[in-house]
Amino acid sequence: MKISTLLCLFLCLGYTGQPQFLTLESGDSAPGFNLRNVDGKIISQESYPDAKGFILVFTANTCPYAMAYEDRLIGLDDKFSQQGYPVIAINANSPEASPADSFEKMQEKVKTKKFSFPYLYDEGQLVTDQYGARATPHIFLLKREGSELKVMYTGALDNDTQNVNPDKTLYVENAIALLEAGKEIMVNSTKAIGCTIKRLAVK
Question: In CATH, what number is assigned to the domain containing residue 64?
Fold first, then answer.
């Protein structure tokens, strides 16, 4: 095959130098997580035997969008952890591609922001890849069904990245309210708006 033909194939297929992953959608079974927290402890879904589900958020240390949501995530955890839906944050970036997302920098972040929830280090971005997280932040609302996890909503926390609109639509909160009421979650997917997840380029 000629080089020009190969180049055309790469361009037509949308080759970006990054691996491509499918993003989990509402209704999909979700993998578990078993990752190291900033305090050195291993955290998994089994660490929360009484949880009904989880607000799993893929985030990062320095992304402006992720930083804009940090206080709202703390508030979300304060409100819903006692209702059975704790926040679990995972750093989605590769520290090799983004040195500001190293484990040590994660520890500094938690000390500064005083997160009320775990902030987990995803070595090799394995869990990030399994969920197909696209941006920071990217939220997956999970429901526990026995030993399994099921995606109930995925996307943005709300529709106000700058946190200036008092009438913002609270996607995650609305989804949990409907879930608790046994009703269908009508808006079960939105676009995750944020920074591109930092990966090592494919060689």
Answer: 3.40.30.10
